Amino acid sequence: MKIEIYNTVNELGKAAAKYAAQLLRKTIEANGANIILATGASQFETLNQLVNEDVDWSKVTMFHLDEYIGVPTTHPASFRKYLTERFISKVALKKVYLINGETNPEQECERLSELIMQHPIDVALVGIGENGHLAFNDPPADFETEEPYIIVELDNACRQQQMNEGWFKSIDDVPQKAISMSVNQIMKSKNIICSVPDKRKAIAIKNCFENSVSNLYPASILQTHNNCIVYLDKDSASLLSNK
């Protein structure tokens, strides 16, 4: 794992997207590419830049990380809505596999798990939550399961973050469950690009990268990935001892 720190969130997003595009171009030359895209406020700048990069998207298959159970695509917090508006509608992807949180969650996990096992991931774009979660794997995260997609309970810190970011009007509106890509499935990605701007993520960054790997700090597992770059801005990196 490598950490890079930028002065602004805009610089962070551009750097992360350009590196993702570079990896995709190299992979596409060989045999097409499979990517994972994350959502949330931390990904705004990265996705804004990525749609403008020179990539043959017709050779790219996309999966996404997580989705609330029971939230329709018309809801502002829907991750399917987020990805459709910010990415899918702007590029011509070969294939898109979105998580349907409005159907039977067990069957949806099975469907997606079968699909992703046929599409080894070349590049995963992820973020880190204020509670240190990776996707919706809140602490204590399941580091053992080999199931690619799982049903998870969202903790209070995670649900509070979603409300504070403006996706929901009240904490009671935030779902308690979601479908999430598992930690082990994320870690199977050949390359991981982790974009984490903002002062409110500084404690999580310190906890995840200045402590030993622990499921209490789920994103700390990224320390063990050989091809992971974590992109921070000066605010999210502000509590790190060695900058």
Describe the structure.
- With 243 residues, the chain is an alpha/beta fold.
- The chain has one domain (2-231): 3-Layer(aba) Sandwich (Rossmann fold), CATH 3.40.50.1360.
- 30% of the residues lie in helices and 19% in strands.
- It has helices at 9-31, 44-50, 79-86, 105-117, 156-164, 183-187, 202-209; strands at residues 2-6, 33-37, 60-64, 66-68, 95-97, 123-126, 149-153, 177-181, 191-196, 228-233.
- The strands form two sheets. The chain has a seven-stranded parallel sheet with strand order 1-10-9-6-2-3-5, sandwiched between helices. The protein has a three-stranded antiparallel sheet with strand order 4-8-7.
- Helix 2 (44-50) links the parallel strand 2 and strand 3 (60-64).
- The chain is globular and about 40 Å long.
- The protein starts with a strand and ends in a 10-residue tail after the last strand.
List the helices and strands and how they pair.
Layout: E1 2-6, H1 9-31, E2 33-37, H2 44-50, E3 60-64, E4 66-68, H3 79-86, E5 95-97, H4 105-117, E6 123-126, E7 149-153, H5 156-164, E8 177-181, H6 183-187, E9 191-196, H7 202-209, E10 228-233
Parallel strand pairs: 1-10, 2-3, 2-6, 3-5, 6-9, 9-10
Antiparallel strand pairs: 4-8, 7-8
Helix pairs in contact: 1-2
Please give the CATH class: Alpha Beta
CATH topology, by name, is Rossmann fold
Structural class: alpha/beta
Could you spell the SSE succession in H and E letters?
A: EHEHEEHEHEEHEHEHE
How would you state the average pLDDT, rounded? 95
What would you call the shape?
Answer: globular
- The structural domain count equals 1
The biggest beta sheet is recorded as: 7 strands, parallel
- Per DSSP, the total helix count is 7
State the helicity in percent bands.
25-40%
Main sheet: which strands, in order across?
Answer: 1-10-9-6-2-3-5
Our Rg estimate from Cα atoms comes to 16 Å
Distance between the termini: 15 Å
Q: Point out poorly predicted stretches.
A: none
Strand tally, please? 10
CATH architectural type: 3-Layer(aba) Sandwich
Strand content: 15-25%
